[in-house]
Design a protein that fits this description.
single chain; alpha/beta; Alpha-Beta Plaits; four-stranded antiparallel β-sheet
């Protein structure tokens, strides 16, 4: 079953919506104009039950089908990234230092396309809950919406989402049952010594040499403390210290991202970080403060719902492929902890990767994503 003809007919509208959103990116929970644009389109479609202000700027809209039945949730994220755009597109971001570098403008557009069609046809029983979420990139907007009770409030029984994937073949869906994306933790380490003249290190307690030793030692966690079959990434991504070449600084800090799938591995990494960092601090005479924060949990697809979503994807797209685990993270994981569902990737062909200043969503893929959402609903909640 290819792209739905009616959705293909308004592909130009989808492109216009997406490029408008791309020009006007908003970050974190501050998606006020984006939410207003979404609500305006939903009202144009004749949708009357629209709930605003969830997780500050999130929106949930309800479409009633024909006859009694369950409620299926469809989610799109709306927020952009703090990146300066380098695409050179005519519709490039007009907001300095912000751009849609992860395709959330496309995700919002695909869900709007599905909403338009579902509101026109209502060829399903029960209800559809359209979830437009802020703060996926930073802030865990999905968890905030859940904490505000959207699953129980709207009676959502299962939930689905998709993410565009540059580098995967155009129109091809990728997914897998079970763990799909990693848990993402963050660690910030502040090291304090005693500063002084760079020519007289014997009078100082150098935090720089301690930081260097700590960063190197942390790499032994992945190489020596985990099983070879356990997936783990620990990457130190920032180091900041010093102000001049002839001054030994008083303090410095570094930060890291930690990606895991198994909670036992996650616990082991956190414990070993504290042991290693405190041990080196004691040996080198510095003080260390470790702020280790658990972030998004692993994204784990439910088997039955994943099988169903992949079958729908096979009919709508150019194929459905079982993929390997992905070390990126996604706050849709919180929704999958509360309700059964699945999260898939949708290939958009070659191009710059996600979170790159030259990334751009491929507008040609939007009708495929919208059709996927529609067929999920129609097949999961066929009229009785």
């Amino acid at each position: 079953m290819p792209v739905i003809n009616r959705i293909a007919d308004y592909a130009d509208d989808l492109t216009a919506w997406r490029q408008h959103l791309h020009q006007n990116p908003e970050t974190r929970f501050d998606c006020h104009e984006t939410a207003a644009f979404v609500v305006a389109r939903l009202r144009e479609f004749g949708i009357t039950e629209i709930h605003e202000g969830i997780a500050q700027t999130g929106v949930v809209a309800i479409i009633e089908g024909q006859g009694d039945g369950p409620t299926i949730g469809l989610r799109a994220d709306m927020d952009a990234l703090p990146i300066t755009e380098e695409t050179g597109a005519a519709y490039a971001s007009v907001v300095p230092g912000k751009m849609h570098a992860c395709g959330h403008d496309g995700h919002t557009t695909m869900l709007l396309g599905a909403a338009r069609y579902l509101a026109e046809t209502r060829n399903f029983s029960g209800r559809v809950a359209l979830i437009f979420q802020p703060a996926e990139e930073w802030g865990g907007g999905a968890k905030v919406m859940l904490d505000e009770g959207i699953m129980d409030r709207f009676g959502i029984g299962q939930v689905y989402g998709i993410h565009n994937a540059p580098g995967l073949p155009f129109g091809e869906f990728h997914g897998r049952a079970g763990p799909l994306m990693a848990a993402a933790d963050t660690m910030t380490v502040t090291v304090t010594g005693r500063g002084g003249h760079g020519a007289r290190p014997e009078e100082c307690v150098d935090p720089v040499t301690a930081i260097v030793a700590m960063v190197g030692a942390l790499q032994t966690i992945a190489s020596r403390n985990r099983k070879g079959t356990d997936s783990l990434v620990l990457s130190v991504t920032q180091m900041h210290t010093g102000s001049a070449d002839n001054i030994i600084p008083e303090t410095g800090w570094f930060s890291a991202t930690i990606r895991t799938f198994d909670k036992a591995v996650q616990d082991m990494v956190e414990a070993r970080c504290h042991e290693i960092l405190n041990g080196i601090a004691a040996a080198m005479g510095v003080r260390v403060e470790v702020n280790y924060e658990r972030g998004y949990p692993a994204t784990v697809n439910h088997p039955d719902e994943t099988d169903f979503a992949m079958r729908v994807a096979q009919e709508v797209g150019s194929g459905a492929v079982e993929c390997a685990i992905e070390m990126g993270a996604e706050d849709f994981s919180y929704m999958l902890e509360e309700r059964p569902g699945a999260y898939l990737f949708l290939g958009q062909g070659e191009g710059a990767g996600l979170h790159h200043p030259k990334y751009d969503f491929n507008d040609a893929v939007a009708p495929i994503g919208a059709s996927f959402f529609v067929r999920l609903v129609e097949k999961a909640q066929a009229r009785v």
